Every structure is written in C-alpha cells, then in structure tokens.
Amino acid sequence: MKALILVGGFGTRLRPLTLSIPKPLVEFANKPMILHQIEALKAVGVTEVVLAINYQPEVMLNFLKEFEAKLGITISCSQETELLGQLYPFKEMIEFHKAHGGEASIVVTKVDEPSKCGVVVMEETTGKVDKFVEKPKLFVGNKINAGIYLLNPSVLDRIELRPTSIEKAIFPKIAAEKKLYAIVLPGFWMDIGQPKDYIAGLRLYLDSPRKKSSTKLASGHHIVGNVLVHESAKIGEGCLIGPDVVVGPGCVVEAGVRLSRCTVMRGVRIKKHACISSSIIGWHSTVGQWARVENMTVLGEDVHVWDEIYSSGGVILPHKEIKSSILKPEIVM
C-alpha cells in the first residue's frame, strides 16, 4: 500500500519559523509534523510514502533520507514544478473502504459554521457521497473535507497529465457515479498553519495522552496540566511549567521561569524569572532575565531577547536581537 502526502506549500502563515525550514519539518510536540503522519501510515501497513514537494526540496530530501532507514519505510519525493494545493484514523478508514466497495473514500469532519466551507452532502447510514456544495447559503450539512483520501488505483486513470484539483475535478464525477464514500473523523481536526491555531492544536494534542494515562507527559510539583518536556532539557528550581507547554531537546530553563500555553523549540535558553505565554520560541533563541513574552509572540531561529524586555505579539525574523520592548503586535525584520 502506498501513500501520497502533499507538502508543496510555502508555509507563509507560519513564518518566521518557515523561513528556516519547510513547514512539514517544523516540530509539533517535539516531532516534525511530517513524522506524525509517516509513523501513522507505517503503523497500518503502508510500505511506501511519496511526498509532493515544492518548497526547499533539498532540505526535505536530506531530512527524510535519515528517517527512511529508522522507520523501515520507503520515502520518495516528487518535486512539484507548480504549486498543486493541499493524514489519522487510517486503520478504520482502510476497513471502511474495503467494506463499501466503492472507488474512493474521503475523511470528513464536522464544523460549527459550514457556510464558510465546502460541504460534503452524504448519506448518514452508508457514507455514500451525494454531492459537494461550496459555501451554502442554506443548511445542507455540517461536514467538510478533511483532506485524507483512500483511492483505488483506477482513480489515477481519471487524472489528466496537467495541473488538476482532485477535489474539484475528480471527486464530483466519482460521486455522480455513486462510487465515492465518506467517513466522519473521530476526535478533533484543525489547521495548525498559523501561530494561534498551532497553540490551540497543541492544547488538544497534549490532552490526548492525558486521557490515555500516558507516561510521556511530565509530572512534579512544578508542572501544571499537560506538559511535554524532552529528556535532554534542563528545568531550574522554582519554575512553574504549564498548562499546555512543550519544551524541546537541549533546552535550558533557568530558575523561577513561568511557561504556559507555549512551545519552546530545540536549543532554547530561557533565563531566570522570564515569563512566556501563548507564544512560540524558535530554535536556539534566548529569552533574557525577567523578560515577558506573550500574546502570540513568535521568535524565529536564533533570536535573542534582552533582559527585562516585554513583547506582546511580536513576530521576529531569524537572527535578530530585541533590545527594546514590543508593546503591540508587529513584525520585526
């Protein structure tokens, strides 16, 4: 069984992090986003993964070759010359696809405001897709395409050798032939392509191992709620960490630091008594003593915030020094 993952986007909404590496390699809960997907595919018997790449293909190729042997799965890349556009209940989806006997299966998810999306109209009992309605003015359903597909090889024969949207050009035809089925995604689904959604998604993700009584989450008198700390990170005395915090490998969190609803990526140093909330701290950055970083501040790679600096919503590009406070959301170039 083969899988195709479309990773051709430029990740502009997640800048400045994606100025350093492609978005699929940005860590989410201390693991590159793309590895979450590849490991899940491997677990259900996928033997080959093809990645459709556009942005920084050489970086993606070098990284994935390292993990190909570790995961025991063949990973190949198809470099997109044009941007083509846009993975987890794989086991359930495979069983569903085999049972209904159609040509293609898609995963859908429920949303609160379907009028803002393209809605999938389907039979509730069988999952057979009737049609797609783009941003309906009248209520026709509350399920939208979640971007996960299981296709028979025959679907590939339907695709012409030119830039094609499978969602707009192919799926409606298969639905008209009564050969397209949809399965509702269990659990949660959301886009984590911009900082505020990344932080919100992290909260949902960290809540999952808590419900499963996982030992992966940190514990102790200094931990509040769901916290993930890499084994190589060092946490000082008198810190208060959590809720919804991830601390990456090689990080140093000095004494008296307060962290909440944030991600601290690989190699970061947080100096004494700093306070960080609702923010993302990029690789190898430093936050000075008594500094306060909040309100969806994002530090790119190798950013150094001086002592006693305040940042409210600053978006700081890589390799910068912040010597004066940022009192309102702005981009520091």
UniProtKB/TrEMBL annotation:
SUPFAM superfamilies: Nucleotide-diphospho-sugar transferases. The keyword NADP does not apply. Its EC number is 2.7.7.13. Pathway: Nucleotide-sugar biosynthesis; GDP-alpha-D-mannose biosynthesis; GDP-alpha-D-mannose from alpha-D-mannose 1-phosphate (GTP route): step 1/1. Keywords: GTP-binding, Nucleotide-binding, Nucleotidyltransferase, Transferase. One of its GO terms (molecular function) is mannose-1-phosphate guanylyltransferase (GTP) activity. GO terms for biological process: GDP-mannose biosynthetic process. It holds the Pfam family NTP_transferase. Gene3D superfamilies: Hexapeptide repeat proteins (2.160.10.10), Spore Coat Polysaccharide Biosynthesis Protein SpsA, Chain A (3.90.550.10). The keyword GTP-binding applies. Residues 223-332 form the Mannose-1-phosphate guanyltransferase C-terminal domain. CDD domains: M1P_guanylylT_B_like_N. Residues 2-84, 89-205 form the Nucleotidyl transferase domain. Belongs to the transferase hexapeptide repeat family. This is mannose-1-phosphate guanylyltransferase.
